[in-house]
Amino acid sequence: MKKIAFLTSGGDAPGMNAAIRSIVQTCLHFNCIPFAIYDGYQGMLEGRGRIMESKDVENCIQLGGTIIGTARCKEFMTLEGRGKAIEFLRKEEIDGLIVIGGDGTFAGAMLLGKEMNIPIIGIPGTIDNDIKGTDYTIGFDTALNTVVASIDKIRDTASSHHRVFLVEVMGKDAGSLAIDSALGSAIETVLIPEEQTDILKLVQQIKSNRENIKATIVIVAEGDDAGNSSIIIEKVKPYLEGVDIKQTILGHIQRGGSPSAFDRILGTSMGNFAVNELIAGNTNKMVSIKNNKVCLHDLNNIGKLSQDFNQKLRIIEELVDLSK
Ligand code: F6P
Description:
Elements: E1 3-8, H1 16-29, E2 33-37, H2 40-46, E3 49-51, H3 54-57, H4 79-91, E4 96-101, H5 103-116, E5 120-124, H6 140-161, E6 164-169, H7 176-185, E7 189-191, H8 199-212, E8 216-221, H9 229-236, E9 245-249, H10 261-279, E10 285-290, E11 293-298, H11 310-318
Helix pairs in contact: 1-10, 2-4, 6-7, 7-11
């Protein structure tokens, strides 16, 4: 295992640079050659990348995003696209590949691994925290802190004006960011894809909330079954005559920002683990964290995590202020 290539793919996530730094430094520790591929699979099939040294990563752990770029690359899911990628990896004499991204990233890597017979290790990097086999994905903790800090700010103005706010958070079709930010922000009403949304029940919650407390904030996961916040606001407005209801879509600020200590440590640990696994001759594994221990999960058993939020929903329910 001499030359190890690595890339970031899909939505960027804070903490990816910690993983990149760790991969480079661990490779150099074991006299391997770290080879960065730019812009994910797009750069791979276009033949863009270069060998990295310590100086390339000496000041990046605190940076959000990914210093080697990322992309969503449809062409890579074609045989022809992967053919170009394989040609590039062969030309560069790559012995092993580390891919940092979400489940779509891993699906592409598995195809490449089979067609090229190259060892592959995945590192879960997405703010959605929706990957089966790991308790946390790199970027989730930072994004969660960004959402909680944003809701604190929205609460200030909502309280001043006694307004209702629908705050939409990312997560694609997962509710992790929504449910944890509700717990972390003392929000009593949260709409997630994993639970059926009842519009009339939501209206009732908003009405009873408004009677007694100043600010009413509803967190809406962008993938909720009743629709995103733009759709939901239109559904509830007819029942809330005269209520000043606003919408805030947090959008891509959830993807940026300096990584939290947790995400820096997670990225650093997973990057180091991934290089060690390649050197040990392992393949088709995803580095994961389970019960606070870094370990390996079979990439053949990857996919979206079907989340059971009942315990968290029970806590939110039991903390509803009954004095209203
Ligand atoms: O997967 C991460 C994520 O931020 C999702 O939460 C979101 O739906 C999606 O990426 C947005 O994708 P893009 O950055 O390509 O618009």
